[in-house]
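Figure 2 data, in text form.
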Amino acid sequence: MQDCRPAETNRLYLGKGVVLVLGTVYAVLFYIAVAILVIGLARRIRLYSRTPAPLKIPTTPAPVTQMGVVVRMAKEVVLFESLFKANKWTWLFGWIFHAALLLVLMRHLRYFTEPVWIWVTWVQPFGLYAGFAMVAGLAGLWVRRFAVERVRYISSPSDHLMLLLLIGIAATGLMMKYVAHTDILSLKAFILGLLYFDWQPVPADPVLLLHLGLVLLLMIIFPFSKLLHAPGVFFSPGRNQVDNPREKRHFVPQTKAAGE
């Protein structure tokens, strides 16, 4: 009878080789994506901060004190106040998505910390269900781009692709929990290894690899996409200016304008 153990051994070594190659590829891509994200965001924020506001143009009714501006910006960031006043349905789906995204990101901190912080442990069940809310919010925003004529008219292919990318990230994340389970301990070891430059094998699960690939893609294109409204809201002159044109003369800093 022919001994099949050498063939099995070869498959085992081949499997280990594939896992090591995948771990190396994803590790290198992770560092590249982080570099592009950090440098790209830094350059954009620097450009926003150096772009002069030639006029005093706060959106009225506007606060007349600096503390009032701080409160206004807080309501804008946390509650999406201006969007709420503009369109209730868009506000609902947008706020659900962003709130769910925050909970999901907080839940994912368990992969980056050892030991896991106590408040991260508490947020785990909320972050899990937030994944479904995230998909629901994104789906509502995507339907809006088809159902509302004026929004459909101004929507570009990149808008649809960005929503598809975000839905893909959320959907594959939920699949790893409810459909195709992955080795969480090995995944955490891989991520911690990236942080401490001690590379570990990545679990060779197709859904996990797709999920990580989509996240890396998002990190790479983030500094060049419309998602820059996240830091950009803090540099909007209609929101961050005090309404005091009579009390204080507005001077334009001597800096280069955007694009120069």
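Caption note: Confidence is low (pLDDT under 50) at residues 7-14, 256-260.
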